[in-house]
Amino acid sequence: MNTLLEQLKNKRLVWQGNQQEHCLTSDSTGYVELDEALQGGFPQSGMIDIHTPIGIGELRLLLPALRFRQQHKRLLVFIAAPMQINGEMLAEFGISLEQVLIVQPNSAEHALWSAEQCLKSGCCHSVLMWHQQLEIAQTKRLQLAAEQGDALHFVLRQSRQLSVSLPVSLAMKLSAHEQGVAVQITKRKGGWPAQPFNINMANTWPELALSQRTCNVVSFPQAKVS
Question: For a tag site, which of 1, 99, 140, 179 has the least CB within 10 Å?
Fold first, then answer.
């Protein structure tokens, strides 16, 4: 039994929750709060499961890391995005559009197939996929493909699925916050989950941060009742 466990550890198929894997390298996320919680940043390869509502700033949270990963001179792929990817916004933030590929598959099955092919091809540094229902077997295939292709796979999904711990490198849950997004790390390879914290986006996107002191809502006068 011990021999089998050692073999699984050597293949990095299992890890101990109380053991930090300092040999794993990471890249900065672009946000100090998130880097501190992850003790360095996002892993350089593997799969990141992100539970988030749509449109709360989840893509803006990933943009600094995606821009940094452009130095690998490989593709950034968006698969089954529920909104139109704004090329002008990507370019303004410094993302090279020549390295961007957008895939709109006809079904969830085609989305999974596209993601696996992109990940293991070695041509992509990052793959973002919007997908609601993931099974453990599907997750293992995607995680393996990401490791084979030295790519980082972000899966963004709304919290509709039952709480199942998937075999991923990192799992996070996002919610809206007046100054950016609130983050809860629910799973982290080689470490323990962190306490919930907020990421302030006001410095990068001040127009998106709400202030408690200001309110743009116009109150209409109430009609007088005679």
Answer: 1
Residue 7 tokens read as 């073999």
Centre a 10 Å sphere on the Cβ of residue 139 and count the other Cβ atoms it contains: 18
Tell me which residue of 46, 47, 43, 50 sits closest to 21, measured CA to CA. 43
Structure confidence at residue 159 (pLDDT) = 67
Torsion of CA 5, 10, 15, 21, to 10 degrees: 150
- Least Cα distance to 153 among 120, 192, 188, 104 occurs for 120
Query: DSSP 3-state assignment of 50?
Result: strand
The pLDDT, as a whole number, for residue 201 is: 87
For 51, other C-beta atoms within 10 Å of its C-beta total 20
Report the candidate in 72, 67, 73, 85 with the shortest Cα–Cα distance to residue 156: 85
Look-up of token digits 């961007």: 100
Average pLDDT per block of 10 residues along the chain, 226 residues long: 57 48 70 92 94 92 95 95 92 94 96 98 97 91 96 89 76 91 88 80 72 48 50
Cβ-contact 78, 128 below 8 angstroms: yes
Give the pLDDT score at 221. Answer: 47
Sign (positive or negative) of CA dihedral 204, 156, 96, 144: positive
Residue 217, φ and ψ in degrees, nearest 5 = -80, 125
Question: Which residues does residue 155 pair with via DSSP β-bridges, in sequence order?
Answer: 49, 129
Residue among 55, 60, 62 nearest 41 (CA) = 62
